[in-house]
């Protein structure tokens, strides 16, 4: 199942592949399993892959670039920039091969590491900083053009807003970006950003439980031709993974939502999600 993302020329798969944990320090599955999962997703028709410059200290982009090499046609790559985790990024990346095996078995360590990372996160939306990060993403992904670039959770009162959007427009004119938009911290932020000229898409945390609350924002986005990507779809007190179809169905049936992101690092979870999407699609045809 594919559909248009807002008024762009992008047609993502209904199920999008969230790449935030495919190469992180706390990834729970071996690298070989993660790579097999990505390849199986491609074979199953998933064509939308969402990553960011800071995911896995840049290794998420590197791994995704490796998997899609030579298979670029029809694949939509979405990446983000604007968050920074500071000078420890390179140190953590160098140490990752030595500690990842331990992290796989030690859940408390994974939780502690995630907490430390969240506390160390900072934001920078200086146009020159973003320019360097986009150039870095192009290299790590090994692509000449990023299909969709998102500012990573910017505040609605972001400084140098005009400079940022001028820089993004230059990248589009140079053929390095196809479309740009905003990864939003909240529905309230999305309500502001969909009014910004040049925003082709917003990525928003939406679960089935929060869909009624999100409806006004989704309606406004649809009216303006702004695409919507749903993330964090299993949060907010929604169904457990055992009821995947219940969590995904209301979102997939909403006309304003172009794709629903789910993080997957093993083939078992990929297949569960694909079965849920297929059953929802089949039911909608009855």
For the largest beta sheet, what order do the strands appear in spatially?
A: 1-2-3-6-7-8-9-10
Query: What count of domains describes the coordinates?
Result: 1
Which structural class do the helices and strands define? alpha/beta
Number of beta strands: 10
In one word, what is the shape? globular
The helicity comes to 40-55%
Distance linking N and C termini: 15 Å
Along the chain, the helix and strand elements come as: EHEHEEHHEHEHEHEHEHEH
Topology, please?
Layout: E1 15-18, H1 31-43, E2 48-50, H2 59-68, E3 76-81, E4 83-84, H3 88-105, H4 107-120, E5 122-123, H5 127-141, E6 146-152, H6 161-173, E7 177-183, H7 187-193, E8 201-205, H8 211-224, E9 227-231, H9 244-252, E10 257-263, H10 267-284
Parallel strand pairs: 1-2, 1-10, 2-3, 3-6, 6-7, 7-8, 8-9, 9-10
Antiparallel strand pairs: 4-5
Helix pairs in contact: 2-5, 5-6, 7-8, 9-10
